[in-house]
Write a structure and sequence with these properties.
Number of helices: 12
Shape: globular
Number of domains: 1
Helix content: over 70%
Order of helices and strands: HHHHHHHHHHHH
Strand content: under 5%
Radius of gyration: 19 Å
Largest sheet: none
Amino acid sequence: MELIEFLKVVVLGIVEGFTEWLPISSTGHMILVDNIIHLNVTESFMSMFRVVIQLGAIFAVVELYFRKLNPFDSRKTEKQKRETWQLWLKVAVACIPAMLSGLLLDDWMDEHLYNGYVVSAMLIVYGILFIILENKNQYTEFPIQRAGQISYLTALYIGLFQVLALIPGTSRSGATILGAMLLGCSRSTAAEFSFFLGVPVMFGASLLKLVKFGVDFTGLEIFYLILGMLIAFVVSVYSIKFLMGYIKRNDFKLFGYYRIVLGVVVLAYFTVSALVG
């Protein structure tokens, strides 16, 4: 294996870990970075790699929120255990729309929407929406301050927002955080519930990609996957901690501005590439 290919996997793992939980679109970043550095693998493997590498990010959530998400924790009271089960049921309800849509639309999305123009449009549109929402919420007192206060109906509505994230460039965390805040969740509650939703949804998406790709991996491809997931895990831990610390003192407008700037950069890059090519 060439050192340059090893470094490309490292970069992709860092990009995935840093962007997965921030509302800035990990898929958009991965598509852009992959076009710039271009890992020397087949297109089918890369399509699978971009999704399955998210497993590393999932384990970061499990690591950081293990006690909160563990209904068998002996240190919890019976009431707390019931509340944990109820939280998982709400997560399950919220996951239903995305899982059904993903099964029906996954191949179509891959074929028609995984391109720089769609990504740039979604980056810009949702960046603008975040800025508008935060300007509106400048003096808002959110009625839902804890994930446990989210009702089953609200969870389902948040799940419907998550369906929008099937369009690359939208950002799964971005769509769910935006939706949760529109439904009355505080910034930290919206972010946390988005993390929890990501565990089953991203695990299911990764499993679907692995099944479609098959088990015909080379030793090098297995190494790429494991390395990418490991790096994504480590970086995700710090990314989640950063986000939760940041939104205790700030709103999401900075991410909105970042999305707009990145969207313009992505659009310019792919436009120039098309003209040159």
